[in-house]
Amino acid sequence: MTVTASTRRKARHYAMQALYQWQMAGASLNSIEAEFHADNDMSKTDVAYFRDIFHGVAKNLDEVEGAYRSHLDRKVEDLDPVSRALLRMATYELKSRVDVPYKVVINEAVALAKKFGPTDAFKFINGILDKTAADLRSAEVAADKKG
Q1: For residue 59, how many other CB atoms are within 10 A of its CB?
Q2: Per-residue confidence (pLDDT) for residue 26, from 0 to 100
Q3: What is the CA radius of gyration of the chain?
Q4: What is the per-residue pLDDT across 39-78, written as a single tens digit (0 to 9) for each?
Q5: What are the backbone dihedrals phi and psi of residue 74, each rounded to the nearest 5 degrees, phi first?
Q6: What DSSP string describes 8-66?
Q7: Nearest in space to 93 (alpha carbons), one of 120, 75, 112, 78
């Protein structure tokens, strides 16, 4: 399968839902992943990207949360579950997927927040991720501001 913006978007969509389910139900990563493969048509999804995000967030949770925690005005535990899943997912991408421009990561998370998050969550997500991107990808953000 060819990796496109569309297949990556679908991977993020499913990864956010899988992370949400993992946070809420606490089931094993492998059982949640198997359920997603059984319940969804993954033929138009970048499955490797889905897997990388989903397992990467879980394996590096402390590091991922530590990267955005200082920008929050509340505890991570007090975030609504959709915002928590999105911040975890996008921060993991900012840290580990430098092949993806930071603006793409933020825009995709904001789009998912508009679709699935509580009212105005997308503004909160955008603000936190802007600050997190400036920390994690300072050279890329600085170059973008000059350009």
Answers
A1: 12
A2: 85
A3: 15
A4: 999 999 999 999 999 999 999 999 999 999 999 999 999 9
A5: -155, 175
A6: HHHHHHHHHHHHHHHHHH---HHHHHHHHHHHS-GGGS-HHHHHHHHHHHHHTHHHHHH
A7: 112
What token pair was written down for 20?
């949400």
Q: Where do the structural domains in the chain lie, given as residue ranges?
A: 5-146
Tokens of 116: 């699935």
Residue 120: which region, alpha, beta or left (left: phi > 0; alpha: psi -120 to 50)?
left
Residue pair 96/58 in contact by the 8 Å Cβ criterion? no
The pLDDT score that the predictor gives to residue 1 is 73
Q: CA dist 59 to 69, 81, 89, Å?
A: 17, 18, 12
Burial of 3 (0-12, 13-18, 19+ CB in 10 A): exposed
Domain 5-146 has CATH 3.40.50.720: no
